[in-house]
C-alpha cells in the first residue's frame, strides 16, 4: 500500500523528535497549530511548540523515542483527520507517569504549496474527554 | 460556562436530525465534508451526506434520536478538533448492530462568514483504527 503524504510527514517529524531537532519538528506544524502538551496544557504556534518539545525532552532526560503503528487518514478537501497508534519510549526515564502507548488524534491541513502540516496534535486522544468527568 | 459556537452548531444539527430535516443537517457540513457513515463507508459532499442520513434514518425506522454528552473543543485558527460523547437512541430499532453510546471525533472549519461547519464527522471515534487490526 502506498504511504499517504501525511504518514510521510509524521514519520519525518518522529525522526526529528528522536534526533532532538526541534526546529524541524516545529516546522512540521502550521503557524497557528495547537499541541496538547498534556491534558489541560496547550501550546499555540511554532515557538511555543518548539519550547514545549524542549521541555518534554528534558522531562524524558533527552531519551524520547516516538513511533507510529497503524495510521488512518480521513480527508475532506484540504483538511484531514488522522488517527494513529503512537508509541512513546524513553529509556532514560522509566518512571514516566504518561502512557507509553497511545491512540493519538491529529488534524492536518494542506498548505497552498501542497504540503500537509499538523494543525492540531492531541496524542492523548479521547483521554482528554474522560478527564472532564474527573 | 458559555457554550462554544461549535457546540451550538452540533446541538442545532442534532435537533435537525431528530426532526428528520436532512436539508438543514447537510447544510451544517462544509461543501467538501466527509461523513463516516459506518466503518469502511464514507459520504463526501453535502448531497451524499444528505442521502446517507436518509438511509441511516430508514435503517432506524425513522426513529433516530441523537444527543451529545461532554464536548471538548481544541482550536487552531479556523480549524477545530471536537471530541464528544454521543448518544444514539432508536426506539423503533432496538436490534441495531451499532453502539448507542460513542466517543465521536469531529473536525470543524470556520467559514469566511464566521460560521463553523463540520468538515469531518466520525462518530465511530477510535474504533476505525481498531478495525484495521481485524
State the total count of DSSP E strands of chain A.
6
Shape category of chain A: globular
Report strand order across the widest sheet of chain A.
2-1-6-5-4-3
Q: Give the biggest sheet of chain A.
A: 6 strands, mixed
Query: Quick check: average pLDDT of chain A?
Result: 93
Question: From the coordinates shown, what is the CATH architecture of chain A?
Answer: Roll
Oligomer: homodimer
Radius of gyration of chain A from CA coordinates: 14 Å
SS summary, helix count of chain A = 4
Distance between the first and last residues' Cα of chain A: 41 Å
Low-confidence stretches of chain A: none
Q: Mind telling me the CATH class of chain A?
A: Alpha Beta
The chain pair with the largest interface is: A-B, 32 and 32 residues
Percent range of helical residues of chain A: 25-40%
Total tally of structural domains of chain A: 1
User: Which secondary-structure class do the elements of chain A indicate?
Assistant: alpha+beta
CATH topology of chain A: Nuclear Transport Factor 2, Chain: A
Strand content of chain A: 35-45%
Helix-strand string of chain A: HHEEHEEEEH
